[in-house]
Amino acid sequence: MQKDISEAVVRRLPRYYRYLSDLLDEGVERISSGDLSDIMKVTASQIRQDLNNFGGFGQQGYGYNVRYLHEEIGKILGVDRKHSIIVIGAGDMGQALAKYTNFERLGFFIIALFDIDPELIGGDVRGLPIYDISKLPEFVRGHNVDIAVMTVPKGSAEDIAEMLTSLNIHAILNFAHLDLDLPDDVVVENVHLSDSLMRLSYHSLINRESLDGKE
Amino acid sequence: MQKDISEAVVRRLPRYYRYLSDLLDEGVERISSGDLSDIMKVTASQIRQDLNNFGGFGQQGYGYNVRYLHEEIGKILGVDRKHSIIVIGAGDMGQALAKYTNFERLGFFIIALFDIDPELIGGDVRGLPIYDISKLPEFVRGHNVDIAVMTVPKGSAEDIAEMLTSLNIHAILNFAHLDLDLPDDVVVENVHLSDSLMRLSYHSLINRESLDGKE
Q1: Angle subtended by helix axes A7-25 and A33-40, to nearest 10
Q2: Which has fewest Cβ within 10 Å: A197, A214, B132, B165?
């Protein structure tokens, strides 16, 4: 069933899951596509189309059952399971991620970090071990690793990504400032913070110009 | 001129800028849309369409002048200027960002951090001061702040974002796990790491299923 869901819908699912979590926290049990549309700023027809992928959630004039929808989307996204994550690059960003325990509430558990820096290797972050990157193959053979997070310098990112792929890790969260060129069955989510800053910079320039124009 | 560039093109510009920077580093002076298409995995016609927005960069049969294009896109994105950034939330993520000096190479300078934690306030990260959040209005009046980065818990994110908006900060990089509801002239770039992890989780499940199916 899952394989029929389009990539565009998959990209939107985490956002649905997030809003449904918030509704549950607020004690909301049912919601119409219209109300969901208002809070999510997506058209009601888009919502109906997206959620129809899972069949039988909505009832005409009755709305969606929030808990059920939350649970089903959670299952599809796999947040009802435990996912083991390794972090490659135990610098400031890698350590900050390892300290962020909120990921665990969604089933994402960082189990180890890897680095090349002798001063970091052998140490730990919040009790999570930092290993020498050379131990990565051995570690992956001995543990079930679902996702790798890469917080490494641009220059070493391609080699690391190829190593991960050869170790059969097919899901990568990439913070390095480049696009990884990997086989089609490897899914990469990029966090390109510099790109985001440049977009903000563009808009703040435009904004400054229009303010100047007003004066 | 800038105002005619569509949002979709603007979203893609940082990626062009990144590839052009790499080409410059490699000493490449000219590149055809076809070659750029190969390395960027975007169709050549998309590239020509995007870059035509700036006029006169490409010459038939001659290719783009990499340095010129890099410089022009850099100007449009504003990376030829200095941008002052404040970080709201001086926890692990905020501190990791403040320590990441590569942003400065693109003109993005973090000038201060803000927090509510008495143990952090008065301290510093890499020499950058951490102030009490209550000092934010005074600070913004005395400094030219272009961009605010929010690394705060979900619960306080909306109040902080409203405060920033009221202080005339119109560009926000948001790490809090919610969508901010702000006026149209405020541009927000979201870094929703949990959403990214959920997408990876979905794909790793699919992958696991198809591997199971093969066995």
Answers
A1: 100
A2: A214
Rounded Cα distance, B159 and B178, in Å: 12
- Model ipTM value: 0.92
Residue of A nearest to B188 (CA): A200
Question: Which are the contacts of B94, defined by CB distance < 8 A and separation ≥ 6?
Answer: B87, B88, B113, B115, B125, B149, B151
Smallest CA-to-CA distance from A148 within A91, A99, A110 is with A110
Question: Is any Cβ of chain A less than 8 angstroms from the Cβ of B173?
Answer: yes
d(CA A91, CA B159): 31
Query: What average pLDDT score do residues B143-168 get?
Result: 96
Packing angle, helices B44-52 and B33-40, rounded to 10: 110
By C-alpha distance, the chain B residue nearest A93 is B96
- Cα(A80)–Cα(B198) distance, integer angstroms: 11
Chain A contact set for B108 (CB, 8 A): 194, 197, 201
**Inter-chain CB proximity A201 and B76 less than 8 Å:** no
Cβ B78–A22 below 8 Å, yes or no?
no
Q: Dihedral sign, CA of B44, B75, B161, A34?
A: negative
pLDDT in tens, A7-44: 889 899 999 999 999 999 999 999 988 999 999 999 99
Among B22, B107, B200, beta carbon nearest to A173: B200
Q: Please give the structure tokens belonging to residue B190.
A: 């979201």
- What's the CA dihedral at B9, B12, B18, B22 to 10 degrees? -80
Kindly give, in sequence order, each residue whose CB lies less than 8 Å from that of residue A109, ignoring residues fewer than 6 positions away. Answer: A82, A83, A84, A85, A103
Measured between beta carbons, which residues in chain A are less than 8 angstroms from residue B197?
83, 85, 103, 106, 108, 147, 173, 189
CB A91 within 8 A of CB A151: yes
Give the chain A residue nearest B109 (alpha carbons).
A197
Question: Taking CB atoms and an 8 Å limit, are B198 and A147 in contact across chains?
Answer: no
